[in-house]
Write a structure and sequence with these properties.
By secondary structure, the chain is of the alpha/beta class. About 30% of the residues lie in helices and about 15% in strands. It has nine helices and eight strands. It has an eight-stranded mixed β-sheet, with helices on both faces. β7, α8 and β8 form a beta-alpha-beta unit. The longest helix has 12 residues.
Length: about 270
């Protein structure tokens, strides 16, 4: 099976490692201008019911093309929509607090759905992409179903220590050695550190009260050896109409397995 999206599980900062994620082949998509004039890169393939795939921290939409779920969804007749979230890939990378606060990333996806004239859509997120998918569940009534992969309930804490450590380290704090590998990796890839720092500073949380009010179907997918990002069982209990599935692997490898794709496609078809 082809290599797929990966994340640094030891840090659980939702950082995708696979080089395929960051490759920048010739563009196959287009740009749209979001609510604050940020240019957002996206691609659309297929003609069926729309599914938006949301990548994780420092990833790009291109990474999904190396996953079984991308081709499996296309083969199942879906319209698959990829997006480079602001601060990543070919999209603009604001260097301001306003560029990432107040659900800017969720608003980008909602704006893209409007731009593409989608009446309804499903969303699949992995790792940090699941955090953004959670916001869409709260903010966008057009979202019909959501998949949250590689995520537990830790993100519901607005003061999640891992998020704070990631932000501080990317802003130059050298005392937080639990994130040394993450910072080293980002620098080795020449990513935009300031944009990624703002992403961590303004990474949204979704409250337990907000999750309790969700009435859409949600699938939580967790690697059987994934111990990162809080409790998947806790998250399952917080979302009334959610299902919890396990696939082989840890936070790094679960997304690689065909079982992940099978779980997603089965859930979306039901």
């Amino acid at each position: 099976m082809k290599k797929c999206l990966t994340a640094i599980a030891t840090l659980s900062f939702l950082l995708f490692l696979n080089a395929h994620l960051f490759a920048q082949p010739a563009p196959e998509g287009n740009y749209y201008t979001s609510f604050d004039s940020t240019k957002i890169y996206y691609e659309v393939k297929g003609d069926g019911y729309p599914v938006i795939l949301i990548h994780g921290f420092s990833g790009t939409g291109q990474g999904w093309k190396n996953c079984a779920v991308y081709n499996d969804l296309l083969n199942a007749g879906y319209k698959v929509i990829l997006i480079d979230q602001r601060g990543n890939g070919r999209s603009d990378k604001p260097h301001t607090d306003a560029g990432y606060s107040n659900d800017a990333e969720a608003k980008d996806i909602m704006g893209l759905a409007t731009y593409l004239k989608l009446k309804n859509y499903d969303a699949v997120g992995y790792s940090r992409g699941s955090i953004i998918a959670s916001r869409l569940l709260v903010l966008d009534k057009r979202l019909h179903k959501a998949v949250m992969g590689g995520m537990g309930d830790a993100y519901t804490n607005p003061d999640w220590p891992r998020r704070i450590h990631a932000y501080k380290a990317l802003m130059g704090d050298t005392t937080l050695h639990d994130v040394d590998d993450m910072v080293k990796y980002i620098r080795s890839q020449h990513f935009d550190e300031l944009a990624l720092a703002y992403q961590q500073k303004w990474q949204p949380s979704t409250s337990k009260k907000e999750l309790a009010a969700v009435r859409r179907p949600v699938l939580i997918i967790r690697g059987s050896d994934d111990k990162e990002n809080g409790s998947e069982i806790g998250l399952n209990k917080l979302i009334p109409h959610s299902d919890l599935n396990y696939v082989p692997g840890n936070h790094n490898t679960a997304i690689r397995n065909t079982e992940f794709s099978e779980s997603v496609t089965s859930f979306l078809k039901d």
